[in-house]
Amino acid sequence: MLSIIIPVGRDEPLISKQIEEIKNTIGNVEYEIIIITIDKNVCKNIPEVRICLYSPANCAEARNYGARMAKGDIFVFSDAHTEYKDRGWGELIEDTFEQREDIGVATLPRYTITGDIRNPKRYLNQIARGLKFNSDMNLLDVSYVTPLKDGEIPFIWGDFHVIRKEVFDDTGGYITEGWGHFEDRTMCVTCTLLGYKNICIEGKQVGAYIRPAQTSHVSFPYWYYGNMCFQALHYTGERLERAKRFWIEDGHPEEVFDIVYNRWEHLRKYYLKRRVHDDNWYFETFLKKFR
Question: Which CATH architecture best describes the domain 2-215?
Answer without folding.
Answer: Alpha-Beta Complex (3.90)
